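Hi there,

I know you've been waiting on this one. I reran it after we fixed the sequence typo, so this is the corrected version. Both the input and the resulting structure follow.
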Amino acid sequence: MGDGDDALDRALDALGDRYRRRLLARLHDAAPSVGVRVTDVDSDDVPPNVHHVHLPKLEQHGYVETTYDSQLAYRGDDFGEVAAVMRVLESNASEFPGDWP
């Protein structure tokens, strides 16, 4: 498996959770230097493990960077990797059985 396969696996892993999809979509729609408050992403359901599971996973993949108190998320150095997959998914969102993101 090559680096491209690893990148796709990482992107799909990151997008495999509704909260992470919505956070990444908010970052994608925002200007590159604009942060997103991590508790304002999904007003219906902010997971209790956002700071212990979701943000660390996205940071590990290089997709987000957070402030010292983990209240704001910004695009990470490898955000473009997941953004490429998101653009493909978004352009085909009408084909999905649920809502995107």
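Quick highlight: Residues 4-94 form a domain with the Arc Repressor Mutant, subunit A fold (CATH 1.10.10.10).

Best,
R. S.
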